[in-house]
Amino acid sequence: MYQITPDTIEKDDERVLTTEQLADFYGCSERAIKQNFNNNKNKFIEGKHYYYLEGAELVVFKNSVENFDLVGKNARQLYLWTKRGASRHSKMLGTERAWDMYDQLEESYFNQNHPPMSIEQMMIYQLQEMQTVKTDVAMLKDTMRIDGNQQYTLKETGKKRALSVLGGYQSKAYEAISKKVFSQMWRDFKKQFMIPRYGDLSKKDFEAGMDFLNMWLPETSVRLEIKNLNQQENLFND
Questions:
Q1: In angstroms, rounded to a whole number, what is the distance separating the alpha carbons of residues 123 and 142?
Q2: I need a surface site. Which of 53, 69, 70, 103 has the fewest CB within 10 A?
Q3: CA nearest neighbour of 189 among 161, 226, 225, 227
């Protein structure tokens, strides 16, 4: 009736899982599994979604698994969940972990045409998959360009800084060399971050880009030119 190995539990040639195993896979407590079942008993059918063991049948199961830590010696009842039961629980939990792990269970545990992976192997595999996703997301963040709002913010910040350096819209320096100053500022910016256009700045460098613009100053010769132009204007105004 029962076939037990370190990797699988089978009842009448059908692979099943204990509540404890199912909770471990789905990253939840056994209590959550039990609550889902108790609150939705009408959606579970014995023999289809689960097997309920008690009395003599539970004793038979305990004797079959005496060398495996699958059920407590003093347990008076036990639920074994089938593929359909595991699927129903994953949907009720509704977490990404539960959905992902059910897919893994379906492929590597309940599929009897393939050698089963052990519980530990599947958990390790899932953790590796999660780490791969995190790595991919981190790489994506590193390569994603700034969005439209961030481009606008950079542009306005650069404009404000260049105007401040020039002395404002009404200054003689703005009238005479504003194009040169703006051009130098954005050239320095692109050189600093090694990009062809300021809009190609990566999201991870956005704050650094803002700092650069807020602290930017033109080269010394240009600063002297700005000073001289604005001093000439002051002389004429006097």
A1: 29
A2: 69
A3: 161
